[in-house]
What does this fold into?
Amino acid sequence: MKALIIDDERLARKELTNLLQEYPEIDIVGEAVNAEDALEKIEALKPDLLFLDIQMPGKTGFELLQSLDNVPEVIFTTAYDEYALKAFDFNALDYLLKPIEPDRLKESINKLLKRSQPDEAISTDERKLGPSDRVFVKDGDKCWFVKLENIRLFESDGNYIKIYFDNFKPMIHKSLNALDERLDDRAFFRASRKHIINLTWVESIESWFNGGLMVVLRGGDKVEVSRRQAARFKEMMSL
It folds into this structure.
């Protein structure tokens, strides 16, 4: 597993590098001294894991993650404990306080390896995304890092997809077919050519024209299930 260490303190980077020598599964492919440096190296090296400091000159570690389209696994390494709750809003694997204790690092690495084992034979591009996964959504200058379980609906709009969560409806440049291949079909259902719905948000189902169905989601959104998909939908939603 390729790892990038991002920290503005040289001694902190050296200490962590020494601690990681005990773990042959972790291949340190580079170091970065700030967020701008990290952006370039993430693009060039494609790491699977970031050991990320939070307080750095210029942008913080949080701001770095918000600027990424694809976020690797993240283990925060910081001298400050007040950022822990915010760190886990970013779906961080762990939060290590400096000076890093070898036993705590071992816990983090074990957690990392345990998480990756079920998907050893599956590439990142092929791995299915489930409700507990977070995705980075960027629409213009606005950014979100949102759990899929909070997204109730995806709607195709030309070459874009409108994403419905909370009171937001940002749009991303992606095809619905490509998205459908990435989502776990146990949680997300392709209702029609234009819509993918989150099954946990279904509130009621009504018969509709030509053998189709009308699904009402929590919050009031209505989505028509095509006749072609109606039988499969009934089967999935029945005991």
